[in-house]
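I am hoping you can look over what I have pasted underneath with an eye to the fold:
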Amino acid sequence: MKFTMSIKKRGTFKYILKKGKYFKGLYIVVYISKSGSNNHLGICVTKKHGISVNRNKMKRWVREVYKNEEDKLKRGYNIIVMYKKGVTINDLDYFKIYEDIKKCFKGLDLYE
């Protein structure tokens, strides 16, 4: 990811979830809020979504989709991608996540 930093602090996550705008897809929810000059990306996958191998795979899919779409996005946003409750790796594949994230980004008007 060229122009993006990761969000790691709990307080930052809580602030974006409380104050930011959001858009719901079939499998994910994307929250955004304004930031400085670069984008910041955070990904939330809880233990209820399966074992660690599956959770890491779900995070890798989101990072890959974001990396492919990064050049088309506006800069200066904090972005959090959360999987919905009850979604497991058996329900998903990369292409479903790709379409869902693109739909959410369009709904939040993140494309230039």
